[in-house]
Structures are given as structure tokens and as C-alpha cells.
Amino acid sequence: MLKSSKISKGSFFEISSIAWPMAANAVLLRSVGIVDLLLVASLGEISVAAFGIAGAIMAFIIGIQGAIANGTQLVVSRAVGAGDKLNVGAETTSGWVANLGFSLLAIVALYFGIEPLIHLISHNDHVAVEAVSYVKISLILLAFSSASHVFVSYFNACKKTKIPFYGFILEIPVNVICSVVLIYGLWGMPKLGLAGAAWGSVIAIVIRFTYLAYRMKQEQRIGRVAGLGKFSRRSLKIHLDEVIPIVANFVVLLTGQLVLQALFAQLSVSSYAAITLILPWIQIGSLFVNSWAQSSTIIVSQSLGQKNYAVIPDFVLESKLVATAMSLLMVLGFYLFSLSLPYLYGNLSAETIAALAMIAPCYIFIPIFRTNNMFCGNMIRAMGESYLIVRINIITLLCISIPLCALLIYLGAPLFMVFGIIIFDEMLKFYFFQRTLTNKLNKYRAMNANSDPVSLGCGQPGS
User: The pTM is what?
Assistant: First the structure.
């Protein structure tokens, strides 16, 4: 079992200093989509529908960019830990090659295939035309987003998470101002409607990219990184070994999420509305724990780069203690949130309010299991066992939870049982994630006790 009774003040403040800008970035990133939707809403149902379709496609591609960048962050963190400035630059370059390579393929595929794809999704010609226009403009965004993701990975790996945060602070007001001006044709600019929102996002990401590129140039000028532009097949192979299972896991989780939402849509209107209202709040709560876990993986990855395996077990247990405390705070927060729902959504029907009350026990206690799984999953990835995470998610989510959910809906099971599939899935993963992380930490302890450089499945942590 993973047990720790205390966390050192040093560890807490070190992780916190890395985590809070990452959490703020995640919240700001989610808020951008909400702001864009609010701006587009005044254009009418056609534009909102087109934005929903186009936005989902772009979010999927950008999500894969983020998954690739996550792998880059782990590899660069190890190079930073090893103190090899040339390797830091080489690994960052490999990150660009991997990310931009995928993005280029996505841009070409979308440019030639977006029209038939959107017409397949929507049978309304007006919606399809606006959605196609939005996606084609946003192809420019994909190129700058890809490069920016790698910049962010580098700065995160160096524990300089405030720099990407400042980039978001710069990007968001530019996005809002440019979108408003171009959507509504203010200050003599053309009135572009939904296309104006796309151009606003493009202009904003270019500004953020320019800022991050400038900060990267500063890093290179003062000698904190070298070897940028140097590329090797070996470095790319290390990257792909790290990236492929992370991307696969993202696709598995997204597929599971979409299938579950499609299954929930078969419920009554009031039941589906209740689930739709709750899911975004569950996701927002997860952002903070995920930022804490990712911050901890940066420190673990740097320790792997230093081959300092002895400090890892105690550090992981200390960090997990805080994650557990966060889960308990989230349980309390969701409980208080459940009490406020009748007032927060006072215009809902009595049936929807009753449905919200019925699923409350499920979403209140989800953090206890999800926080553990999120923390363990991030740590296991940092230790080089990403394929295990994919395997666990495929078995528990795709092979067990989703078929069971479909069966419960077919049998007309009560709503709390159907929605309870989400917490059931987390409970299934709980044991496997816990056991895998425990085994990894025991190997590090044994390695330290024996002073035997046994392979721990971490790829090449010193590279």
C-alpha cells in the first residue's frame, strides 16, 4: 500500500510553485471556449451549431498535440535533471519534429477532407458552410498551437510554469478583443460572423507564440539550453516511445467519453439534462488535481534524469498525500454544490432537479477514486509504463464499463445506476493503478538498497 503520514514543507511549496500556474492555464484554456461560445451565441442557432461541430474537431486535434507535448515534457524533464543542456535542446527539437509532423498531416487531411466530414456530421447546408469556413481558417492556428505546445513543454520541464501562464494572460484579452471586433465588424473592420471568432483565435495564438519564442530565445542566449535545431533519429525514437502510448490513452479516454455521452443521450430529457449540467463541473474539479500530479511528474522525471532513484518513493508518497487531501476537499465542495443546485438552476423542471438529486451521491464521491487514479496514472507515465495505462483503460472503460452501461439502459435501470457507471469505472481502475505504482516504488527502493542499476522500464532516463 502507498502510505505516508506527512509531507515536508519543502516538497509542498516546490510542487505548489509549479502547479498553480499549470492549473491557472487549464482553467483559462477552458474559459476561452466558453467566451467564444458566448460571443457566437448572439449570431443565432446556425452559427452556434457550426461552432459546436468545428470546435469539437479542432479540440480533438489540439488534444492530440497536447498529448504529444506531454510526452515531450517527460523526456525534456529527464534531460534537465541530467544537467545536459545539449540534450535538452536536442529533445526539444525532437518534440517539435514529432508535434509539427503530426500537425502537418492533420492540416493536410482537414484541408482536403473537412467538407465531406462536416457534411457527414451535419445535414444542414448553412451549418456545414460556416463550420467548414471556421475549420479552414483554424488550420493556421494548428501550426502555431503545435509549436507553442512544445515551448510550454520545455518551460514546464524546467519548472518555469509561470512563463506559459503569462503567455495565456497575454493571449486571452487579445482573443476576446479581436473576436468581438471581427465578429461584429467594429472600428471599420469587416463583419465576419463566425469566421471572425476563428480569426480572433488565430491572431491571439500568434501573439502567444511570439512571446514564447522570444522567451525561448532568451533561454538560448543566456546559455540555459543548447543544441536547438539538432535532430537525431535516436532522439525522435525516444520521443515516439514516450508519445505513442500517451496519445493512444487520450484517444481511448475521449472515445469512451463520447460513447458514454451518446448512451446517456438515450435517457429521458430530464435525466440527460441533469448529467449534462454536472459533467463540466466534474471536469473542472479534475483540472486542479491533474495540475498537481503533472507538477509532481516533472520533479520525478528530473530525478530519473539524475538517476537519483532513492528520493522518488518518499517524494511520491508525500505528493500523493496532498492529492488525497485535495480529493476530500473536492468531496466537500461537491456536497455543498449539490445543496446549491436548486438555487443555481432555479429555472429547471422539477424532474431535472430530482434527477440531479438522484445522481448526487455518485458525483460527490467520484473525486476519492478519480484523484487517486489521476495521480497514479501520471506517476506511472513518468516512470515509463505508459502502455500499462492504455491497457487498463481499454479493459475497464471500453470492455467493461461501456457495455455494462448500455445493458443497464436497455434494461431500464434507475438513473443513479446508469450514471454510477462513471464511478464504477474509476473503482475498477483504482486497484490496478495503486498496485502498479506500488510495484514501481518498491523497485526503486530495492534498487537503492542494492545499489544495482536495474532497468526500471523508464526508457532512457538519463538521455
Answer: 0.79
